[in-house]
């Protein structure tokens, strides 16, 4: 049995301002920095050690992982990938959530936020460039289902094999990319995953068997 640790990034400046962030690169707020440091202190106190880490290419996620590991006095290989990015919120990105609710209604916004297959309105053109993302693959909007489909090749091809080799892995990512991982690990239905919330800056611990099936799950 092995343990996998997943941490949602600390509060970003746009979390604080109640803005849809998605793939936009908002840094951590002062509280977010403290969220990450606290997560690292708790993991160190509980005796966790890691061999490698995975995170997204977005600053709020990789800064969180960096702060966690500094608190733990660990220097380990880190792989950053766009596949662990937050869900792309399309046209909603950069918009205040309350203002969007006033325009479209609470019910519609909740469908965009929590629904599994529903995509928000798309952006007119892509405005993100990553060397590892081929032309045409950068999304203009995503549902949670799209996010899951984007992440799973990386889980299956990179993260899961490292865990099976016995490496102790930590992942720092985002609310929706973590929900996609939770759906796969726990084999949840689309209906079940809509009810899952991931707290900011709180380490999620999975104890996994040799087939990577969860034996237990808890938050620190």
Describe the structure in your own words.
With 220 residues, the protein is α/β, with parallel strands linked by helices. The chain has a single domain (2-219), classed as Phosphoglycerate mutase-like (Rossmann fold, 3-Layer(aba) Sandwich), CATH 3.40.50.1240. The protein is built from 8 helices and 6 strands; from the N terminus they run E-H-H-E-H-E-H-H-H-E-H-H-E-E. A 6-stranded mixed β-sheet has the order 3-2-4-1-5-6. Helix 3 (59-71) links the parallel strand 2 (52-55) and strand 3 (78-80). Helix 2 crosses helix 3, helix 4 crosses helix 5 (106-114) and helix 6 (144-164) packs across helix 7. It is globular, with a radius of gyration of 17 Å.
Which descriptor suits the 3D outline? globular
The CATH topology annotation reads as: Rossmann fold
Work out the number of β strands.
Answer: 6
Please, how many helices? Answer: 8
> Within the largest sheet, what's the order of strands?
3-2-4-1-5-6
So, the CATH homologous superfamily?
Answer: Phosphoglycerate mutase-like
